[in-house]
Write a structure and sequence with these properties.
By secondary structure, the protein is mainly α. It contains 17 helices and two strands. Strand 1 and strand 2 form a beta hairpin.
Length: 369
């Protein structure tokens, strides 16, 4: 029962589809496939490692605590960058490439990335970690632990703002909507209304703060020049997607496409979205398989949540469903599911959706004896 489930089968199907892309007759480079398959399909194998190894509640608790501790350290370091500046090595790195500087220095303010590879990965990590904190607060914890989690969530959300990544700003509000739907009661409803009022106030309040202004612009995409450019790029690539059901080959776009097939049509195309990249490289067939995978994981998590009995395990399950949901939304404006460490977190969450339900079943059987 640990591995024989729909989520495991869909992950194997997705891995198989990526491996078969080596036979794609339209692909212009086998080397691009080889370099890309490592970060796409092979990372998914960690799902099976997690399912096999995480077999006790104590280990799950340890994993989640470690997750929050690392996120706390990342947030603290981002605040160090904000209030005390970058280190010499960081300044040397951001000044080494004019394109990188244009990406990180916006409106006279540096986007913070903590000790991650870029602000996008950092901000998404802060968003899903804050979501985890909010869900844990709703669980059966002592009052002082809930206060600690509330303070940690506030710190993580503040650090997320320092990243200047608009795509991350919508993840927590979206997760809160899902939270209110799945855990519907009077207290959750009041909390959701309170959070909605605060978010609406932050969106509408006049400000000259660059971080808050970028937060506000995330909810006004029609006024954002970069969003309009992405929308145009997606529109112009649609005929190619329609005419290539299996895509142009794994790794055809981005860095590997520019390295191994610089003269190809797709090498210069900026996907700027995880879903668009899948559609372009793996075709609309691949996009269908990928979306089915996400649906299967979410369906399993929601179904397991309402079937479970243990309050602690149900709280963990709710948090993991919301994290998967948030990353699924975040994969549209950015490539959220292929960047380290968020790709590891994604498959960890998918594995725990399976593991937590099996642990709950075991506990129920033990109690019945």
């Amino acid at each position: 029962p640990w591995l024989a489930n729909p989520v495991s089968f869909m992950i194997l199907a997705w891995i198989a589809y990526n491996l078969l892309q080596v036979l794609n007759p339209v692909a212009v480079s086998k080397m691009a496939w080889l370099y890309t398959i490592r970060s796409v399909a092979f990372v998914m194998l960690t799902y099976f490692v997690f399912v096999y190894q995480l077999r006790s509640v104590s280990v799950v608790r340890l994993i989640l605590k470690l997750w929050l501790v690392l996120s706390f350290l990342a947030a603290v370091y981002a605040m160090k960058q904000e209030f005390f500046g970058f280190s010499d090595s960081e300044l040397q790195w951001v000044n080494s490439d004019p394109a990188l500087m244009d990406l990180l220095f916006i409106d006279g303010h540096w986007r913070k990335f903590s000790f991650f590879s870029d602000p996008v990965v950092f901000s998404y990590n802060m968003a899903i970690s804050a979501t985890l904190c909010i869900c844990l607060i709703s669980g059966p914890l002592k009052a002082w632990k809930k206060w600690v989690l509330a303070l940690l969530a506030a710190l993580l959300l503040f650090a997320m703002l320092l990243s200047g990544t608009r795509g991350a700003f919508v993840l927590v509000p979206a997760a809160l909507v899902m939270f209110a739907v799945m855990k519907y009661n009077k207290r959750v409803l009041l909390f959701s209304v309170f959070a909605g009022v605060i978010i609406a106030g932050l969106i509408l309040v006049p400000t000259s703060n660059p971080a808050l202004y970028r937060f506000q612009s995330a909810f006004k995409p029609s006024e954002d020049a970069s969003f309009l450019v992405r929308k145009y790029n997606q529109k112009r690539i649609q005929p190619y997607i329609h005419s290539h059901p299996f895509g142009g080959g794994l790794g055809a776009t981005g860095a590997w496409g520019q390295r191994f097939a610089p003269d190809s049509y797709l090498a210069s195309f900026p996907p700027d979205s995880g879903y668009v990249r899948v559609a372009v490289e793996l075709g609309w067939v691949g996009l269908l398989v990928f979306c089915t995978l996400l649906f299967t994981i979410l369906r399993a998590g929601i179904r397991n949540y309402f079937r479970m009995r243990d309050p602690e395990l149900k709280t963990y399950m709710l948090a993991l469903v919301l994290i998967i949901f948030a990353l699924g939304i975040g994969n549209y404006p950015q490539e959220a599911l292929v960047q380290f460490p968020n790709n590891i977190y994604f498959y960890l969450a998918a594995a725990l959706i399976t593991v937590l339900y099996q642990l709950d079943v075991q506990q129920n059987k033990t109690a019945a004896i």
